[in-house]
Amino acid sequence: MTAPGRRSSTFTRLLRHGFTDPSAAERLLDSAELAPVRNDPVLLDALGATADPDLALHGLVRLLEAQPGPTARRELLDTLTASKPLRDRLLGVLGASEALADHLARHAADWQALVTYEPRDLHQGVEEFERGLADAGDPVALRVAYRRCLLSIAARDVCGTIDVAETAAELADLATATLRAALRLAEADAPEDATLCRLAVIAMGKCGGHELNYVSDVDVIFVGEAVGGADEAKALRAATRLASHLMRICSETTVEGSIWPVDANLRPEGRNGPLVRTLSSHLAYYQRWAKTWEFQALLKARPVAGDPALGEAYVTALQPLVWQAAERENFVPDVQKMRRRVVETIPAAEVDRQLKLGPGGLRDVEFAVQLLQLVHGRADASLRSGTTLSALRALSAGGYVGRVDATQLDEAYRFLRSMEHRIQLHRLRRTHLVPEDEADLRRLGRSLGLRTDPVATLLREWKRHAAVVRRLHEKLFYRPLLDAVAQLAPGEARLSAKAARERLVALGYADPAAALRHLEALASGVTRKAAIQRTLLPVLLGWFADSADPDAGLLNFRKVSDALGKTPWYLRLLRDEGAAAENLARVLSAGRLAPDLLMRAPEAVALLGDGDGAGLEPRGRAQLEQEVLAAVGRADGAVQAVTAARGVRRRELFRTAAADIVGSYGTEAQPVEADQGALVDRVGSAVSDLTAATLAGTLRAVVRDGWGDTLPTRFAVIGMGRFGGHELGYGSDADVLFVHEPRDGVGEREAADAANKVVSEMRRLLALPSADPPLLVDADLRPEGKSGPLVRTLKSYEAYYRRWSLVWESHALLRAEFVAGDEDLGRRFIGLVDPLRYPADGLGEDAVREIRRLKARMESERLPRGADPKLHAKLGPGGLSDVEWTVQLLQLRHGHADPGLRTTRTREALAAASAAGLISGENAGILDEAWVLATRVRNAVMLVRGRAGDTFPTDSRELAAVGRYLGYGPGHAGDMLDAYRRTTRRARAVVEELFYGG
């Protein structure tokens, strides 16, 4: 038995050498297998140098136990103690890979593959690996030979003999040799198939790029041709059988496990397409049908097995198409969209642990490099490498990426790939997730050479490198554009003006020459303003490129910067608050309305800067009215007062539009608003409240200017139509009724004259030409329409409605709501009209028929000539009019009996009708969806074009901008129109049933 003092000393030594379970290690060192070397300090030092000394010691004991006898065991121990290269290699593998330790325990003689230490063994290639696999006569033997070769790569990797790029290249070379061996086995099993066809195996993805992982799908494409005069169809069937057999040999699990899955899904038409095609069929597909991502995938295409001449012919035929891909419409947005889609598919619980797909991960580097290759590789053949790091070096040498950026990106990519390699090497499982277990993190950190506090150091280094990748991923594609026009540090490579223009075209800029002029104006010079803008512009250019009109975004940014560039808080806001810069980019490139509003008062950009989004939250009516009335009170005269009120309206319209755009586009800090109805309600309420406050301020200004504090008659404004329903859009007129009531002692004539003068002056002041958008007041829904007086007394309304009221007026009054002026008078007016709009006996059949007749006439008379009815958001089938008239008919019929229906808001009334059982929940949902969509189309048209419209734009760029607002990416305008027709068609079917059939 070991003495207590001795045990304590050994225990301490084991701890000092990195063992985490010294007691178990001490027992293993005392085992019979290690008796000859138990006290050898060299062994203990070597174990302590591994990633996981406990794992290495356990693996070594298992390997010794697996030796066929004492002689073999003695040979292993003698070689281990005498040969430092073997000791480092063998123990390094055992301490890093549990899976390879399992392989050595099953194949006890394979450790001898690590003994040889000659220069030619340091960097093995396809030829060496083919020799290592040559004796494999069946799939099981191929697996064993593959693992033996893998053992050699892993040994040199963990010892630092080869770096991460060389390791990845050797893994790809081993995959090439394995595919050749598998094809050889498949041909041996079916020699008659082999004689009928020529088959070439094209490596894709990381294997094609010479940068494979330890455990990864091997992506391939198969090309087949008939031999001699053989029938092509028979030859392709034979080639397909051989390709399928090759895939099974590599992918199927045997007693020795599997090698790796062979994935042919990158072929034309994916898994729905034939496994093997002729070269001409491949070429025809890529010329006619291939999507952008398929050309991006071809960057890494490399013939690796089968008929070499056919493989080379494939690459030669398709490579020219790869370098034309950047000329395709929506090329860059398609690539960027695919990258975003990859991130969005990551489960939320894994995002922060993803080495490959997450933000700041390996894919960010690869996508950025490939994007630059495809844009600039057309004219610069030096960039046409399938290997990420080689391509990055070429991009740096050519001036397409700054040297410092390239160096940082290279270091980060190497670190992240090293992490990925060591994580996979442990159990030879395909994973890209950083482990959470403390022991796994410790082993991972030590395997990368981090010996002092390996867990904390690993996590800190990982986050640092990921942050570098994320920053450079955003910057890489855009920053060289500035380098082409700005003053740079001496010796820094610059993108040529021609290359900059090419990149701008690829990004979607229609006028690259103008864009370069804007960049020069913004970024040139040595001022603090230019320096800050050079920092901001790379990211802003990316956000502009994510819109339908990048040119407008850049031009508008220049205008805002020209107006505010000398204001200290402006650039500080954009530099220090990421939300402000991204919000501004979205707003400036989403259309004409928001930028137009901003240009008239650029200081409103401050609203975009609150990190929590509070700056874009709509303000309530009371708060708005208080500000407007205060501004009116400070003004000299009615004109100045209304100008002040309209200035508040302009700023708040900008706030509302900006919030709508940000909610619809989404930003890094704020995802796209999932509830489209909430966006519509927010805009409708905000614009309606703002209109009411503006009218209240205008009324106060007119009364004060003409009569002082008190008007001779009480006066109220009643909102009608969308105004009364809290559903105003950006371009809506304000439908109103005006009502007055003479004060005690004031004659009818004097009161009427005063009221009419107030109405006339309010309408005039609100329509005056100015920098602010006009507010048109429409009173055509009054009794007798345009033929009737603009303003009536409450008694006059009562007399008219009692004697002359028509069905259409009851219908219109469903939207009536007090909005400004004398609140008591407004409340009494609403009390007066309630019996008309919610009749006690509902509607008679004659009234229902009249409403249907009125609607049919409106559709036929008001629909613009030449307009496509199915795409008219207001009057088209399933549009706003259809839904609103259907809901309003239910209100007229049942509003008296059901208080829930007594609302001016369409969506609230629809929900109440569903709750009351007047309409099924399914049908209510269909109508609500159509109404929300049609409203958003109208809002989008106004935001994009800067003027109101009820139909989709005909201009392709404007149509794309509407689509972007509605959530459709570049190239999907057709999908948007199809979805609109589908949604409104379903709504029209419900309208036919409820409005015309009920």
Largest sheet: 5 strands, mixed
Percent range of helical residues? 55-70%
> Whole-number radius of gyration?
38 Å
What is the global morphology?
elongated
Strand-residue proportion = 5-15%
Structure class: mainly alpha
Calculate the terminal CA-CA distance, rounded to whole Å.
98 Å
The beta-strand count equals 10
Instruction: Give unreliable regions as ranges.
Output: 1-6, 486-493
Quaternary form:
single chain
Number of helices: 45
Average the pLDDT over all residues and give the rounded result: 90
Keywords:
mainly alpha, 5-stranded mixed beta sheet, 45 helices, 10 strands, elongated
Topology, element by element:
Blueprint: H1 4-16, H2 22-29, H3 41-48, H4 53-66, H5 70-82, H6 84-96, H7 98-106, H8 119-122, H9 126-133, H10 139-158, H11 164-189, H12 191-196, E1 197-203, H13 205-208, E2 218-226, H14 232-251, E3 262-263, E4 276-277, H15 279-288, H16 292-298, E5 302-306, H17 308-322, H18 331-344, H19 362-376, H20 388-397, H21 403-427, H22 438-447, H23 454-476, H24 479-483, H25 497-507, H26 512-523, H27 528-545, H28 550-564, H29 568-576, H30 578-589, H31 593-599, H32 621-634, H33 637-665, H34 676-707, E6 713-719, H35 721-724, E7 734-742, H36 748-767, E8 777-778, E9 791-793, H37 794-803, H38 807-813, E10 817-821, H39 823-837, H40 845-862, H41 880-894, H42 906-915, H43 921-945, H44 956-965, H45 973-996
Parallel strand pairs: 2-3, 2-4, 7-8, 7-9
Antiparallel strand pairs: 1-2, 1-5, 6-7, 6-10
